[in-house]
Each structure stands twice: as structure tokens, then as C-alpha cells.
Amino acid sequence: MQLRPRQVDFVESCVNALKTRGNTIGVAPTGAGKTVMLSAVAGSMGGRVLILQHRDELVSQNRATFKAVCPGVETDLYVADRKRWSPGATFAMIQTLSRESNLSSMPPFDMVVIDEAHHVAAKSYLTVVERARQLNPNVKLFGVTATPSRGDGLGLSKVFDNVADVITLGELIQAGFLVRPRTFVIDCNLRESLAGVKKTSVDFDMNEVAEIMDKQAVTSRVIDEWRKVAGDRRTVVFCSTVDHARHVMQAFQGCGYKTDMVYGDMPDGERRSVLRSFDMGDVQVLINVAVLTEGWDCQPVSCVVLLRPCSYKSTMIQMIGRGLRKVDPERYPGIVKSDCIVMDFGYSLHVHGGIETDIAIQDKEGKGVCKCCPDCSMDIPIGSMVCPICGYEYPEEDEADPNELIQKARSPLVDFSMTEVHLLEVSPYKWQDMFDGYVTIANGMSAWACMVLYKDRWHSIGRYGNDRCHLLAVSDDKTQALASADDFLRQYGDKEAARKTKRWLNEPATDKQLTMLGISTPFGVTKYGASCSLTWNWNEREIRRIIQKIS
């Protein structure tokens, strides 16, 4: 597996921090490939590694990805039904390992990796970390998370004292790995009232928020505005309290929309059932209260409605991020998603000025890569304008014009774009245009991928080995289609034989290739160009079948 360039930067930053500081945390949202980067960091450091997870499905997912990134490292599991310590990497469930009877058998480790590292303040994690330190005082501690902010700001500092790198939503949107948000801020004449709501240690007082926003007139306006711009979209709504959520749910239901809700005290089985119905499309609008902010992703979500303000920018970004995942067309056939509508009724985009967070790994003067957050004392990347741990927002050097800020929040975020040329340049594979650009294809020898423009949409299709052709993406945006195709080749392609810097790619086509292509005047035909043409010829019928089936 070959990492994206931004993933390589992230891994290098984390490895350098581990070598100099002995611990670090890396922050990256869903879509960045956290498990890939986690595995690459562990593989780069070497030694005996313990990788901690808090959910069963993460253990198997992380192990499979680790094997793809570090195929030569031995792995094993320490879970309820299999308790084995590997000399390479051991993947353990924190609930199992933290029991005293199990912890006593733990061997010394050179490194402990914590997935979803914002949970590290829990007693179970701290117990395991302390045991690892007792067995090896020089043990390296590494954490990755998409949602580090805890509100109290100090929970993570018992294990980590610095943040090595932060990948932002804006970076992933620009690169085509997440869809573009289209933001709308709707003024219901509540801004002055909401400005007076007091803050708790972690957020605004949601009971006070509900007194302002949980009104029939406001809810009716919400549904009217939603119907205008997003009435046919799978939608997630964030409310202030359970009563507020219930009233909003009933209003949507009264208008004929299939709507349900989830909340913190809901029985686990009932909540899973509701989420399953939403994932399957039996529910169109899902109302929630502080449940779906993290750890949940449903790709078909293409509208996010904020019916509450967010005191921390990181909380707002987490909520908006629920709708930015691209759709796997094989998992959700017939669903095409190129953007996500964000409707903000709580003025969070006004307050925080958008979802962008500028991060610089090194400042222009080269003075260093870190600065100390004044609120939580964590060292964070020097270009961060928001502390990823506690949410502290650094003041702007020049105060922005409030009217300009409001206009920016009301307008769609049209600046999230990246030319396909840039992605083609950073790809390790050589992409060939065919048929006047209607087809773009790359051959990775052990795998190939192509993009086909049909009925104004880009269809990414790939194949590896003797497996069938896979539909990778369907999008109005070529950049998103290219990102999916390139990721497929990075995972399955031959990174040595087919790298675009290899000399053979530009050598003249062989006589056998020319004969198979029926070419008698081979001027300018290269071995690689011929291999791409042959790949297309051999797979064209199946490619057409896949595209026509979904069109």
C-alpha cells in the first residue's frame, strides 16, 4: 500500500515527535486514512507494538489495514476469545486488557498506540498506559483521533504533551477525498437571544438554547427552508435537548417525512435499529442530541442541519463532517453524492467564520514547529488557529469585518477546489487520456483503474488480480473520481514495476503489443500507452455494463 503525499507528511511529523518527545498525538478527520497512517507510524518505529481499540470492529479493521501497510510484521490479537501476545504488533481491546488478571500477563512494549485517542483520559486506558510505563520507562506513546477536543482540555495531558500534526477537513475536500460543503446560514432573528446564553465547561447551556429555539414558529421555518434546498436529501439534524429533538421529529413527521431520533439515554438495541433504518433509507431525516457528533458515519448523508449553536469550532466541524463522506457506489447503489448542504440556524458559522482551519507544519521564519496553547498547555502545530485539544481559538491578527464574515458564511464554500492536474502530478502512477479525455486510465500492473465520463458524470472503476471490476465512485466532480481511483491503485497496484518514473514506461511498444492493437504505424506509441489501451480493450465490455447498469 502506498500512502498519499499528505499521509507521508503526517507520518513523518508523528515519527519525529515520538523520537524527540517520546509521545505525541496526531489529529485527522474521517476520510484521512487514520488507520493507514497509524500503521505506517508503528511500522516506521519498529519494535514490539501494542495497539489499543475500544470497539470490536476496529480490532479487525485495524489489523487488516496494518497487514497491508506492514506486510512483514507479525500480528496477533488480545481480545475476549483470543489472548495472544505477538512479538510484532498486538491488537487489543481496552475493555479486555484493562482487567487486572489480564494486565498482569502483559509483556514490555516498545510502543503503545491508542486509536480514538480522545478516550485516553478514561481509567481503563490510564491503567494500561501506566502498566506499559512500569514495564518499559522508555515506551513510546502514540495516539490518533478525529475528535480530540474534550472541553476540559486537560484529559489528554496525562498521556500526551504535544500534537504532531493536524489534517483538516479543508485539505481533504480540496484533494477530493471528501465532498464539498455548501453552507447556508439562516437568520431566524434569534442571534441576539443566543448571544446571551451562558457557557458550561464543555459547551453552551443547552437548556437555555432550547428555551430559545424549541418553538413551533422556529421549527416551521426550519422545515420550510430545508424543503427549499434539501427536501430530497438524507438529512441529519443536531438539536439542543431531547424534548427539542422530539418536537422537531414530530414536526417533520407531520409534514409527511419519514423521521426518527436518537439520544444518549436510548437503549443500545433501539438506537442501533434506528441507525440501521436510516442507513438503509427507510428513514430520511434523523434527529439527534449529542450522539452522532463522533464515531458514526453514514455515507448517504448529504444534508446537515444545525439547530443549536456550537461554542467550540471543533464541535461544529465534527457535526458538519458527518455529511462529507463520499459514497461507495457498490455499497449504496444508485446514490450519487457530490456535495453536502449545511444549514446553520444557530449562527455557528457566523461565530467561527467557516470550517477552514489553517495549519502550518513549520512557520515561514523557521522558528519552530510548535507553540504552547495558553488554555491546556499542549504543544500544537505553530500554524494552528484553533487548539485541537481544548478548542481554544487564537485571535486573528487583523479583526475581520463582521459584515464580510456574515456574507462569507452565507455563501457556498466555492474555494474548496483542486485541479485534477495536481492530483495527477502527485500520483505515483501515470494517467493516460483516451478518446479525447472521456476516459482516463492508469495501469498498475497488478491492478488498474480508470475514469469514464458518461452522461455528465465521472465513473471510477478498478480491478486487481483476477477479481471482478469494482465501481469505485460516481461523481459530478472529476477530482473526487480521480481521488477514489488513485486510492484504489495505491492500495492494490505494483508500486515498483508501474511507478511513473520507471524508464520502461516511455520505451517503444513491443511488436506483440502493436499486433494485438492492430497498429501498423507505431509512431509515438509507448509500452505503457499500449498496455493501457490493451487493458481498456480487454475490460471495455464489463466497464460499459457497470456504467449502463447504474445510469
In short:
With 551 residues, the chain is α/β, with parallel strands linked by helices.
Helix content: 25-40%
Query: How is the largest sheet built, in terms of strand order?
Result: 4-3-5-2-6-7-1-8
CATH architecture of the largest domain: 3-Layer(aba) Sandwich
CATH class of the largest domain: Alpha Beta
Number of domains: 3
Strand segment tally = 21
Output the structural class: alpha/beta
Main β-sheet, in a few words?
8 strands, mixed
Principal-axis shape equals globular
Tell me what portion of residues adopts beta-strand conformation: 15-25%
Identify low-pLDDT runs.
357-368, 398-421
Q: What is the straight-line distance between the termini? A: 32 Å
Key attributes of the depicted protein:
551 residues; alpha/beta; Rossmann fold; 3 domains; eight-stranded mixed β-sheet; six-stranded parallel β-sheet; 21 strands
Question: Could you characterize the architecture of this molecule?
Answer:
There is one protein chain. The chain is of the alpha/beta class. It has three domains: about 5-170, P-loop containing nucleotide triphosphate hydrolases (Rossmann fold); about 175-355, P-loop containing nucleotide triphosphate hydrolases (Rossmann fold, 3-Layer(aba) Sandwich); about 420-550, no CATH class. The chain is about 35% helix and about 20% strand. The chain has an eight-stranded mixed sheet. Strands 9-14-13-10-12-11 form a six-stranded parallel sheet, with helices on both faces. Helix 12 (about 270-280) links the parallel strand 11 and strand 12. Residues about 355-370 and about 400-420 have low confidence and may be disordered.
